[in-house]
Amino acid sequence: MNFKTTWITATLVVLAMTTWTASAVAETTVQVRNINLASAYKAAEATRAQCEKDGYKVSVAVVDMGGNLKAQIRGDGAGPHTVDSSFRKAYTSASLGRPTMDLAKLVVKMPAIQALGKMNENILLLGGGLPIQFDGVTVGGIGVGGAPGAHLDEACAKAGLKAIGAKVPEAKKE
Q1: What pLDDT does residue 106 have?
Q2: What are phi and psi of 154, to 5 degrees?
Q3: Bridge partners of 129?
Q4: How far apart are CA 101 and CA 127, in angstroms?
Q5: pTM here?
Q6: pLDDT bucket at 28, cuts 50 / 70 / 90
Q7: Which H or E run contains 142?
Q8: Could you tell me which CATH class the domain 37-164 is placed in?
Q9: Strand 137-145 and strand 129-134: pairing?
Q10: Model confidence pLDDT, tens digit, residues 99-131
Q11: Separation of alpha carbons 27 and 41, rounded Å
Q12: What is the largest CA-CA distance in the chain?
């Protein structure tokens, strides 16, 4: 074998191995889309600002699809409990892909699924958490705690979604 033939053979072997490795990786992994840090902070601050404008002292949390905290803001005067509740609402909406208000109403209508709220210690079935979705894909969750009513927490969270161009859930008619 001459140098040229050896070089071509080696190149083909490397290409074949690379293709096989890429194929194996594609077959054994999944790609998950997550909210990035800049968008998480932007959504959290827009949410806090809306609540402050409306006269509410709140905490806001944004999590990624793994339920990992990406951003959290505790507004001036917000109660200490709001830090935990905002995180748990964000976690719940990201994990279950639905507004926490809808889930809270669902367990009232269907008592057989009340265990949904006890799946783990981070689940909180109380309004104020919304999934963060782009093009039908959930990339995280946002949660608000501290406004005088879950519907007000949710209204503030919608301002955060609007700020980053995420899908804003429509109000459901009962």
Answers
A1: 92
A2: -65, -40
A3: 143
A4: 4
A5: 0.84
A6: confident
A7: strand 137-145
A8: alpha beta
A9: antiparallel
A10: 999 999 999 999 888 888 888 999 999 999 999
A11: 34
A12: 82
